[in-house]
Amino acid sequence: MKRLFLRLVGVLVVFAMAAAGGFAWWAHQPLGLTTSPIEVVIKPNSGVLSVGRQIQRGGVGMDPRLFQILVRITGHGPDLKAGGYQFETGATPLDVIGKLARGEVTHYVVTVIEGWEFRKMRAVVDANPALKHDTLGMSDTDLMHAIGATESAPE
Length: 155
What we know:
Layout: H1 2-27, E1 32-33, E2 38-42, H2 48-57, E3 60-61, H3 64-74, E4 83-87, H4 93-102, H5 118-126, H6 140-146
Antiparallel strand pairs: 1-3, 2-4
Helix pairs in contact: 2-3
């Protein structure tokens, strides 16, 4: 009986080691991306599994449950940050988690030239697809009120 138990424990240890080895191998393999580069936006206050789903829906070929397990193993669960991220061909699951944990979000530039009228500046901001357009359709007076300005006209 003792021999049978030891054999069973030995088989379980071998299976556990094989599973751990396979998981470690997967964590270092490049992910399948639908295009490259790929943009993924992670919403604020998302849980780890939700982040994994958002990444998968964004076109990164990664199972959200495996993502969740890897995040837990690496201890980066509380470190994941919301924002827009860009992933290139060759990115591994560990690369994705590292980027999210470090908050390496994609940055965009909007140039506002000194001397522009307020409406021209708003037109440039509104024309940028990378920005969230909270003020689109607002009048100048409504915008000034929304930012807490005492003046009604921006200029």
